[in-house]
Amino acid sequence: MLNLRLIEPVTVVEDSQLAGEIPYMATEDSSEQLENLASGIRRCVACRLHESRRLAVPGEGPAKAEIVVLGEGPGGKEDATGRPFVGPAGRFLDNLLQNQGIARDRLFITNCVKCRPPENRTPRRDELKTCTSLWLERQLELISPRIIVLLGQVAARQMLGETATVSKLHGTMLERDGRSYFVTYHPAAALRFDWIAATLREDFEALGKLLAHAPHSP
Ligand code: SF4
Fold first, then answer.
1. Which of 145, 149, 159, 162 is nearest to 206 (CA)?
2. Can you tell me which atom of ligand 1 is nearest the CA of 50?
3. If you take atom 4 of ligand 1, which residue's CA is the nearest one?
4. 42-59 confidence digits (pLDDT tens)
5. What's the CA-to-centroid distance between 127 and ligand 1, angstroms?
6. Superfamily the domain 5-212 falls into
7. Whole-structure pTM over 0.85, yes or no?
8. Contact between 63 and 28 (Cβ < 8 Å)
9. Which residues, listed in sequence order, are joined to residue 77 by a DSSP beta bridge?
10. Which residues neighbour 185 within 8 Å (Cβ) at sequence distance 6 or greater?
């Protein structure tokens, strides 16, 4: 059973924490702390995924990012470069962001697991649990973003619970445990299905409106 509060786009923004009430925890050395986490991720052997990776992909973006974009796990291009969302799905994501005027420097982009699963299979439950508790949770604590954008079912279930369903929750803001989430499909799915591409565009339009009502941090 999900214990979530659904937030209607735009109308609830004034009353929600999106209006700027969340204090930024980032300090002068938070970039350094984030980089320390990245160094740890690059050396991590805590789950079986390290065996087949070329490069771990810690994520990238500013320590004071307003928005964290969270995917499932690195693909082939990411594994080869050590950078998140640089393949075809990443280009689609870039296009979605550009269309809404959302600058990349407002984002920290990362994944639930930091190493590519073999053959791009779905990360297993134990891999997700290990990687999120070791690394993702610490990244989120440091960055303390206003909104976490969840791309796809794996990210949605990891953050919102096992019964979360993207087809029901997409395009909406939710709160859980003091964090604000926006759920949508994974851009990789948009490359296979036109209807998902169209839905993603609509969802990012809704996200753009939400962000327009949530002023930038000073
Ligand atoms: S997926 Fe995460 S926990 Fe597993 S080896 Fe990579 S960094 Fe470590």
1. 149
2. 5
3. 47
4. 999 999 999 999 999 999
5. 7
6. Uracil-DNA glycosylase-like domain (3.40.470.10)
7. yes
8. no
9. none
10. 151, 152, 166, 170, 196, 199, 200, 203
